[in-house]
Amino acid sequence: MKRKGNAAIILVVAFTALLGFTALALDIGNVYINKVKLSNALDAAALSACLELPENPSKASEIAYEYLEKNGIDPSRTTISISDDNKQVEIEGDLDVKYFFAKAIGLKGTKVYAKTRAAIGPVKSVKGGLRPFAVVAYDFSYGDRVTLKEDAGDGYHGNYGVVALGGFGANVFRINALYGYNGKISVGDLIDTEPGNMAGVVDDIRNYINADSYTFQNFNRDSRRLWTLPLVNTLEVEGRKKVLVVGFAEFFVEDVEKRSGKAEVTGRFIRYVRSGEIDFTLEDTGLYAAKLIR
Q1: Directed axis angle between helix 199-210 and helix 170-179, to 10°?
Q2: What was the pLDDT predicted at 259?
Q3: Cis peptide leading into 75, omega within 30 of 0?
Q4: Which of 60, 133, 231, 291 has the most C-beta neighbours closer than 10 Å?
Q5: Beta pairing partners, 133
Q6: Would you say residue 281 has pLDDT above 90?
Q7: Which residues lie below 8 Å from residue 291, measured CB to CB, with a gap of 6+?
Q8: Distance CA 114, CA 38 (A)
Q9: Predicted structure pTM score
Q10: Domain Putative Flp pilus-assembly TadG-like N-terminal, which positions (predicted)?
């Protein structure tokens, strides 16, 4: 009987220990889940903040705090820092996690901590949305008025700033001008110029643009007036020739004019963050992508 009693005691002790380890494992799992939640929220906030850089760092901080709150993170428990060049966002924060089962052994909870950093850098390649116009690379300033397509007579040997993306001819040009080229173009690629004034397509472009009432002083990211264009080494070529893509830039299209069969498109240069492959070694041309660099 004594041996049976000892066995029962051992079984109870072992079972109690097993329950304790199971409870501890559940609490540790809950800590891990909250750690991931905090880390993901900080990542999302940092990447969202990057969309306002480098032009509006104060708005970037506001957006980061909004994203943290939406994801259940107390903004007062976080710190947001933006680099002096307005191209990096760093966020750190902590979160209290209560224990459910470990309370039985006197443990109330713990604190999890996370830190992240996101940066914007020059876009190396663009997939989707590229418009079939090219601009010669230049050190533009925000708001500079730029001719995106020359009037007939103002170009060079039949070239007026139009490029062939994914095919040649007015129909391909029209689709790309209205909706953007759906292929991929990268820095270092050679693309063909598209000779001709393409004035017949300008009415469609103008109607498409004018359906958008945004202005340069007040526009959102969904504006159809925002165009991503390739920057090239030259447009002073005769006929259909290949030119080198050296970067990308974003423009807010202000005017699409057609006079006496001539067509001209003008816009303003902006610094802008969009989706795309990033390469920090490239020259800064004002179009950026964002990525986590923690």
Answers
A1: 20
A2: 77
A3: no
A4: 133
A5: 162
A6: yes
A7: 118, 119, 121, 278
A8: 7
A9: 0.87
A10: 5-49
3-class DSSP assignment, residue 147: strand
Report residue 100 as tokens.
Answer: 């459910």
Q: What per-residue confidence (pLDDT) applies to 109?
A: 85
Question: Average of pLDDT values for 104-110?
Answer: 76
User: What are the two backbone dihedrals, phi and then psi, of residue 40, each rounded to the nearest 5 degrees?
Assistant: -65, -40
Residue 182 CA to residue 99 CA, distance in Å, equals: 51
Residue 47 has pLDDT above 70, yes or no: yes
> Does residue 222 surpass a pLDDT of 70?
yes
Q: How far apart are CA 266 and CA 254, in angstroms?
A: 6
d(CA 170, CA 14): 81
CB 146 within 8 A of CB 133: no
Tokens of 141: 């300033």
Instruction: Report the chain's mean pLDDT, rounded to a whole number.
Output: 90
The set of long-range contacts for 72-76, using a CB threshold of 8 Å and a minimum separation of 24, is 72/37, 72/41, 73/38, 73/41, 73/42, 73/45
What average pLDDT does the segment 138-144 reach?
96
CB 155 within 8 A of CB 251: no
| CB-CB neighbours of 32 under 10 Å | 12
Please say whether the beta carbons of 221 and 125 come within 8 A.
Answer: no
Spatial separation of the C-alpha atoms in residues 88 and 49, rounded to whole Å: 9
Write down the pLDDT at residue 151.
84
Task: Give every CB contact of residue 182 below 8 A, 6+ residues apart in sequence.
Answer: 127, 128, 166
Beta-bridge partner residues of 288: 122, 273
**Which whole-number Å values give the CA distances from 198 to 140, 194, 202, in the listed order?**
26, 9, 7
